[in-house]
Amino acid sequence: MALFEMDAGHKNRGNDPIVGQSDDARQPIGKLLVGVEVLDNERQPKCPLVRRRSS
């Protein structure tokens, strides 16, 4: 939701250098978010009824 609002705000600003910097920052942030999702999915147990033993 916040990214959608930022996009709408950027469209209103035109050729502002801050918009370019923000666009450059979005790609690495997006990659990090995807990485976090992948790690979260790997941490979730495959079978929710089986508990892991603590080491």
Description:
With 55 residues, the protein is mainly alpha-helical. 71% of the residues lie in helices and 0% in strands. It is elongated, with a radius of gyration of 19 Å. The mean pLDDT is 75.
Number of helices: 2
Helix content: over 70%
Distance between the termini: 40 Å
Shape summary: elongated
Report the structural category. mainly alpha
Query: Kindly state the mean pLDDT as a whole number?
Result: 75
Strands, count: 0
As a whole number of angstroms, the C-alpha radius of gyration is 19 Å
Largest sheet: none
Question: What's the short story on this structure?
Answer:
This protein has two helices and no strands. It is mainly α and 55 residues long. It starts with a helix and ends in a 12-residue tail after the last helix.
Key phrases:
2 helices; 55 residues; 71% helix; elongated; mainly alpha
What topology does this entry show?
Blueprint: H1 2-13, H2 17-43
